[in-house]
């Protein structure tokens, strides 16, 4: 796996770019200056063109409400490819013995909307996104789809500003911990898969999720618990049923592993899931 020192070196390498990025968008007309210093610092101060950064943070809802400004969708398209290449190459180089199916399983645990949203939230990205009034009023700043898409758009902007080396360094800075977690934990960020593997390994049956919701339709909060064997475990919350189930599965995994006297060997779950995906094990 990429070592901590490698990640630190990567962060250091991009920290020499010019300092404060203060943006006044020529497209949005006169207005207060926008200071993105905190966001740049969280990214490692990479080379980043101010106009591209502004565009990367412009959601289509804001663009449509302001005369059809350019949106971040093209940058998102580019950033998705940059992220995929960097993560795929990292997995290829650090897991020389894994089959294509296993590598694909690991990559899917890192490159998905939920994981990207967690990365975006960890750097406070949501507070910088430019949203239309409708999205703003319905909690768009914390919406996984919006945050994850914006992460990719920012990576696209960095790639155009500084090239592949700089954008790859930022990907390592933000995603190496997730790559390491996915490899060490098994199904990694897919806690439902990890829990199902653990349950099957110990003959506890198929986990069943119990979901409750609260709040108005446009701002619902979901709470999930999971029934495994004779017990009810976990207590996960989220903006969607899927998010709540993942949170409940994560908590339940730890509780059940503790009840069983410790976690199974690291990597067991993902190896079995990947083997099934690649045809190496029967279902």
From TrEMBL:
Region annotated Disordered, chain positions: 1-34
Chain positions recorded as Mg(2+) binding sites: 76, 149, 152
Organism: Nocardioides panaciterrulae
Native organism taxonomy: Bacteria, Bacillati, Actinomycetota, Actinomycetes, Propionibacteriales
Keywords carried by this UniProt record: Cytoplasm, Endonuclease, Hydrolase, Magnesium, Metal-binding, mRNA processing, Nuclease, RNA-binding, rRNA processing, rRNA-binding, tRNA processing
Compartments in which it is found: Cytoplasm
Residue ranges of every copy of the DRBM domain listed in the record: 190-258
Protein name (database record): Ribonuclease 3
Chain's gene name: rnc
EC number: 3.1.26.3
SMART domains given in the database record: DSRM, RIBOc
